[in-house]
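Feature request, filed as a ticket because there's no other form

It would be nice if the structure record came with a short human-readable summary line next to the tokens. Right now we just get the raw output. Example of a typical job, pasted below so the devs can see what we mean:
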Amino acid sequence: MEILNEIRFSMPSLSANESAARAAVSAFIVQADPTVEELSDIRTAVSEAVTNAIVHGYRGTSGRIDLVLRLLPDREIYIRVRDGGCGIADVKKAMEPLFTTAPEEERSGLGFSVMESFMDRLSVRSRLGQGTTVTMRKKLAAHGS
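Raw output as currently delivered:
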């Protein structure tokens, strides 16, 4: 995979860092000159992935969340969000709309659906006791579109 630019960073699984992740993604992606809508979509998808890691991956514990952001040829954005949390027992079930492991917290269960709707590709890999990796890609519209 040819990479035009890349940043990597790691942060503690604190809810305050969800906004920091959004800001970092915005600052990185602006070099690709996205539309306001594209930028908003990507920020929202990253926010959902980071929030899932904090709320579900590290439920009752703490750890680190690692992000990789890449600018690929043809204006494609690659984003990987990885945690070392509890993992997901059934990824397919977890990706169903309205599924939640925390109904008592009034969670909507739409995180993965939101990510899927805003990105072109979404992949979720998880191992119990080892964590979850969410990989997303979005191709930005051609300049002037």
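Something like this underneath would help us a lot:
Strands lie at 5-12, 64-72, 76-83, 121-127, 131-139.
The helical segments are 17-29, 36-57, 91-94, 111-118.
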